[in-house]
Every structure is written in C-alpha cells, then in structure tokens.
Specification:
With 328 residues, the chain is an alpha/beta fold. It is built from eleven helices and 13 strands. The radius of gyration is 20 Å and the shape is globular. It binds zinc ion (ZN). Zinc ion binds next to loops.
Length: 328
C-alpha cells in the first residue's frame, strides 16, 4: 500500500465528462472513475457529481481522502491558479469567476490546487511523456478549437493572472472569422477542426461539388473535420485544398510560437492532427518559411505520448509539485 506522500487525488473537470483519479508520483494511475458532467444542471450539480466520482475512485484503492497528499483540479477554461478561480468556461454555461479551488478544498478538507486543463496536459507531456528531458516545450492540441500550454525552464508558464498560453486566441488575421472569444481571426478560427468544417460547408454551399457532401449523407450540418479528412483520403480535390489551407494557417501560428518562445520541442496533438501529412507538411513548410531559421532548425516536432489521460496526469504532477513548495 502506498503511503500518504505517494498519492494525490486528481480531477479533470471537462465540459462533457469528469475524470477522477488517484495517481502516484511517477504518473501511475492507481484508480480512476469517469462520469458525465451535468453541465446543463448548473454548478452545484457539477460539484456534487465531482464528489460522487471522487468517492468511487478513492474506494478503488481502499483509501480515505485524508490519505491523499493533496488534491488537484484541472479546469476547462482560463483560470487563476494562484487565487484558485475559474474565470469562465466555454463548456460550462453560467460559470463566471468561480472559486473552484476553495470549493473543492472545503468539500474534501484537503489542500487543493487548480490548473488550466491545457496547461495540465502540457505539464504531463513534459514530466511523463514526449517532452521529458526538455527545458522549453510547447504543447498544442488541435481539435474543435486550439488549446495549448507552454513550458518555460521546466515550469508551466501561467502569466500575471494565470491566463497565459491561450494559444488558440492569438490573432492570425485581424479581419478573419468571428471567434467564440468575441475577437476575429484567432488562430483557432483558421486552423482548427471547426474551421476546416466551416470552410468546407461554405465552399459546398457556394456550389463546389465534393465527396465531402456524400460522406456527410448530403446534410451540410453533418460536414465535420472528419468527413473532410475521409474525403481527402479518397483524393477529393476540395478536401485536399482545404486541409492544405488549414495546414498553412497552422504553420503561421507555429512560426509565431517559434519566434516568441524558441522551444526545443513542439508536441502537436488533438483529433485534427491525426489527419497527418496532408495537414502537417504544409504547416511545417509554412513555419519553416516564416520563423527565424536557426530557431526553426532547433525544434523537434512530435506527437503526444500520453493519450487522453494526459490532463489528469498533469493535474497530479502539478498538485505534487505545488504542495511540496507550500507545505512549510
Ligand atoms: Zn478567440
């Protein structure tokens, strides 16, 4: 049996699911439970669901919450780790300036630490995954949006109020499409899966014929990044063109990141990155053309190693590291 110093309780709060896990110092998962996030039922229902999920996870290791070294929670939105506040979340309607750390801390009566979910995933890849042995690393996940985290000198960069590394919201084209954040032309409006699907829908509605529509069963609403990917795999011309264009914009953002952070490694994950060469070749060509040459040459591009548990593993690493800093 592991002793108290060896286990933390880590909670990955997502818009659709809650993952609770008991994790050891090496990132080993001793127990886990996942449950649906009752996001539509409001904050109290979500907190209750976290409580129930945690109980089930803890029971699997025949332990009590008091035996955990600390508690960590990963939040799906911009948050202030120092103050423990989740500012807002695109996936949790109605959540504004929620003191989630203190809520969880009093629920379990245990020191609790809050980290943004994308920063947590970046930290996990750095501590346990693709980025081990690097000092400066960037992790991006390209899916419906673009999220990410930046590791500078082996620490997650959080900024003055904790909202650093909102990579998906760097402006790429100031007159570009409207973003969920209220701005226009953010990176994720041009290079995410949602962007790819939107562009395909626009072109097909404009009269371009494409296999994409057949794969979406003739329904414009069913056009997704996945249907575009499938069409491209069958050599559909429009799909190939749009993926290359999305790759181009992905590369513009990568060039910015390389010039600003001079990372040793960029880990590119998320469902859309699985499109592979059709997307990544134009992305890297563009990044190479636009970034400072010597900095580009130093970057290794790689895929994540940890899969979908990376969030909760990063939350655990963060809790271990923060509690050891603050327990004096
Ligand atoms: Zn934005």
């Amino acid at each position: 049996m592991k002793s108290e110093n060896d286990m933390v309780l880590a909670i990955d709060l997502g818009g659709t699911k809650i993952l609770s896990a008991v994790i050891d110092r090496d990132g080993g998962m001793l127990a886990r439970d996942h449950t649906v996030t009752p996001a539509a039922l409001g904050q109290e229902a979500v907190i209750e669901a976290i409580g129930a999920s945690v109980e089930r996870a803890i029971a699997q290791v025949s332990a009590d919450i008091s035996e955990m070294h600390a508690v960590g929670i990963g939040a799906p939105g911009p948050s202030n780790p120092e103050k423990g506040i989740l500012f807002t979340s695109p996936n949790l309607p109605g959540w504004r300036n929620v003191p989630i750390r203190d809520i969880i801390q009093s629920l379990f009566d245990k020191r609790t630490f809050l980290i943004n979910d994308a920063n947590a995933a970046a930290l996990a890849e750095h501590r346990f995954g693709a980025g081990r042995n690097t000092k400066n690393m960037i992790y991006i996940t390209v899916s419906t949006g673009i999220g990410g985290g930046v590791i500078v000198d082996e620490r997650p960069m959080t900024g003055a109020i904790g909202t650093a590394a909102e990579l998906g919201h760097m402006t790429i084209n100031d007159t570009g499409p409207r973003c969920n954040c209220g701005n226009t032309g953010c990176w994720e409006t041009l290079a995410s899966g949602t962007a790819l699907a939107r562009k395909a829908r626009g072109r097909i509605e404009g009269g371009t014929s494409s296999l994409i529509l057949n794969l979406a069963q003739g329904d414009h609403q069913k056009i997704s990044a996945r249907t575009v990917q499938e069409a491209a795999e069958q050599e559909d011309e429009l799909a190939g063109e749009l993926i290359a264009q999305t790759g181009y914009y992905l590369g513009v953002g990568l060039a910015n990141l390389i010039n600003i952070f001079n990372p040793e490694m960029i880990v590119i994950g998320g469902g859309v990155s699985n499109i592979g060469k059709r997307l990544l070749d134009p992305a890297l060509e563009t990044a190479q053309r636009r970034a400072y040459g010597a900095a580009y040459d130093r970057v290794r591009f790689t895929s994540p190693k940890l899969g979908r548990n990376s969030g909760v593993m990063g939350v655990a690493a963060y809790a271990f590291e923060e509690v050891s800093k603050s327990s004096f």
